Amino acid sequence: MTPADVLKMIRERQVEMVDLHVIDVPGTWQHVTVPVSEISEETFEQGVPFDGSSLRGFRGIEESDMLMIPDPATAALDPFAEVPTLSLVCDVTDPEHVPYSRDPRQIAKKAEKYLAESGIADVSFWGPELEFFIFDSVRFAVEGHRALYAVDSEEGHWRSDSENNNHGYVIRPKLGYFPVAPSDSLSNLRTEMVKTLQSMGIRVEMHHHEVASGGQAEIDLRFNTLTRMADTVMTYKYVTKNVAARHGKTVTFMPKPLFGDNGSGMHVHQSLWKGETPLFYQGGAYANLSELGLYYIGGILSHAPALLAFTNPSTNSYRRLVPGFEAPVNIVFSKGNRSAAVRIPITSNPKASRIEFRTPDSSSNPYLAFAAMLMAGLDGIRRRIDPREAGFGPVDKNIYHLSAEEKARIQSVPGSLAESLSNLERDHDFLLEGGVFDEDFLATWVDYKRTNEIDAVNLHPHPVEFQLYYDI
Questions:
Q1: Does residue 70 belong to any structural domain of this protein?
Q2: Residue 117 known to bind ligand
């Protein structure tokens, strides 16, 4: 799509409004809506001015003038607008059109540029598996004298004794993987989400109920290049939330909204290609994975404690990443083993060769998470980090059934966001290569997370503390 193509689309679809999206540093879409009469080819060059000081992680009020530069390749009709509205994702620049170093989308694009200039590969492909919950209701409050949260789902196991709307087809904890209707009460809703994504030009491979009770779901996307896939992830979140709202339900991508059942991850499949050649395939090798693919894994696992500051960037992420449970907390690799942090899906098709990093979750900003993973993998290739020699496996056993002695030899991911941020402060040179990330952005990220999230959680009394200590 070119600007001229977008303007033609506007005329043909009788578009009345244009929605311009930018992403803030933590990873939430923000938007402004412009009447179509104000859109021309010049808009795609000159951009639309906005106040950058109002976006989390961006500039202070003393230097707040910024521009949204629409990317014509992202044009799609918004299926939720009451009047015909075109959606466009934007890059952020300063008033002189210099790309803004704290714009997550610019960082993703710099990572792709660095890859192409490295000579290692021309392109990377990304296929995240986003899990989420569809609840019927949610309540939460945090005040000086009280704190609470409550979620509900008609298919939740806790509804088995409910006197209202109880037909007995609740899903038991950890038994939600692939049940049919009527136990899977959300199949039609997920189908509507898929059809809506398809109407916006997004390819979907499948959808299904996930393991947890209470409405856990997954919709799998067809792979794409790094920045385009990050755009797609944001559209995915927008679509699932709005389709659910249409039906009086609510979607959350929190990694761990329920205690005692599976959390929601974002397993990220990734591969490198040069021209038409997939670089991760070598027939007859372990898992048919090439040496270059092994080095890429070596980079991911070597930098995993720091990577998690971007791939698992919420305090809630670490409610999911608990040793001994379903989440892959073990810093090892394996073929087909879902208890390892990195899994190599077994395939005899060179074009399907890839690695899967299973630790991330969807609280991440996809532009930053994908860029950071790529930079770690490339560092492994550049430094020829062999994960076997580095002690990362392969481990082809169920790690949860290993002996205590065997488990002691396996490193686990950090146990908290604070620990991951400390690891990022110690280990981030690989992110600075090619100017993809810079010290200013990394310092901003760490400070924002500590001040606005970690401190907020640490300073408030927790309901479980009343259960434990009230009568002490």
A1: yes
A2: no
